Amino acid sequence: MKLVRKMPVVAVAVVAATMLAGCTGSEPDAEAKVVTEFPEEWSEPITIDVFDSLANYMGVQEGWFAKIVEDKFNMKLNIIAPNVAGGGDTLYNTRVSAGDLGDLIIVDRGTKLDELVEGGLAADMTPYYGAMTNVAAYDTAVQHANESLGGLYGIPTSVSSIKPTEPSEGIDPTFGPFVRWDLYADQGYPELGTLEDLLPVLKKMQDANPTADNGEPVYALSLFKDWDGNMMVTAKQPACFYGYDELGFVLAKADGSDYQSLLDSDSEYIRSLKFYFDANQMGLVDPESTTQNYDTLFSKFQNGQVLFSWWPWLGQTAFNTAENTAAGKGFELVPIDDQEIFSYGAEAYGAKTEMVIGSQAEDPERIAAFIDWLYSAEGVYANANQTAGTAGPEGLTWELNASNEPELTELGQQMALEGDAAVPEEWGGGEYVAGASALNTTTVVAADVDPATGFSFNYKTWPTYQALVQTPLSEDWSAHMDGATTTMEYLRSNDQLLVAPGASFAAPADSSEIEALRNQVKAIIVQYSWQMVFAKDEAEFNSLLSEMQTQASGLGYDKVLEFDMTNAQAQDDARKAVAAELG
């Protein structure tokens, strides 16, 4: 919301109130017919506007997901994506001021959802809830999300039947030190006591493999700036190997045992910067790190030009093709003796993003039916294939085999192992990835079990998939990882996983004062962090660290830190409470 953010706090409040007061949204429809069962068919075709704060696609949904929705609901989805439109909250504000944000709205709970309810732009779904049997299976989360709204206005996403103290991530945690396992093996599987022990090993790996097959140089580490926010994003990742995650300028440990100020000289963040600095001194950091974006980095991983990945969904996704893994090549988790990897517990009350029906929707009952379908097993498989690794539509990408176990079809195998596949015309045609759901949200976490099959929605956990991906790479990794067949199995059996209970905690929005201070400080943190990584020597590294700390302090770092620290402790209180109640 660029125009508004430049205004003082009072002005911002006045603008928001004025927009809502001036909008044409109606009060929730108290006369809506109460339904206990949705129709099996919808005779009139409609196109609904979907204002989706998570979508990265703008326009009418196409491909196989569009065909499923049209066949079931006689409905097309016109996706309105602020991420694509740009301009921050400009599109949101414009549509709110017009009194019609969308027919289906995917938006964060808290300030925005409260605004929509107060302004009459959100419809009360209470009349339809009796028919929303799939959503009602997660009634605890639904009631929790709406307890202060005076009606049923939002359906939380990423709900789960898994206990909040259990990982939500399937066979791999979100974070972890992943290396080119084949090249690590070439060095004799050296033991690693701690993070810094990686550097001499990566040096040997790089020296032995200076050039990729495409003729380009190989670097152990390659960084990027796209996602920098409160800090240099790639400098936070190693902190997650030790149980920490960020909340503003705080690194909070998953079990609440420690809170670190980002800029303390002995913080995990500064440790990471020193790790990258030392790596650069050894010639291990890609010199294009300061200018490349994530897409370029991903291509380098695909081409074998990078040896280390912070996430399985980068190194493995890009490089572990069927051809490479059959040849024994690929990324796998490397064991570090003192690692204690952060894991997100299943969110007891769902994620902060919610599904809302707009008060101006022409056919709210049909939209309620569509939302409910997204929480059915069929909807979960189909909607979250690209965002959460669910298997896709039964009959297209998977089917039950003779043993009544789910198994990927030939097309599903192509999609899973090669990244894309051509879709038959009867399913809508086109390329599989292009036809995937553009909603870009997960309704039920993929690790949940489909009661009809007894297996997870995530195909990577299926025994049939595990057998499919048995390769020289996986066999060698398992042989050197105590016989574990998955990353999660190894970490849990070695007590190297720290699960943050899923409490669905959302920190309160920054006041305009905190926001203004944060924006100044984080720019300094990001700028100096990059300079420190590429400092010419350790004296300059330490000098830049001191300058960063001094300048940040002068710009109000301590005030923002105090705000973040309070939120971090509230987050831990919520985690402990949900673990005690539901864990």
TrEMBL record:
Swiss-Prot/TrEMBL keywords: Signal, Transport
Keyword hit for Phosphoprotein: no
Signal peptide: 1-21
SUPFAM superfamilies listed in its UniProt record: Periplasmic binding protein-like II
Record InterPro entries: Bact_solute-bd_prot1
Similarity field: Belongs to the bacterial solute-binding protein 1 family.
Full protein name: ABC transporter substrate-binding protein
Source organism per UniProt: Cellulomonas soli
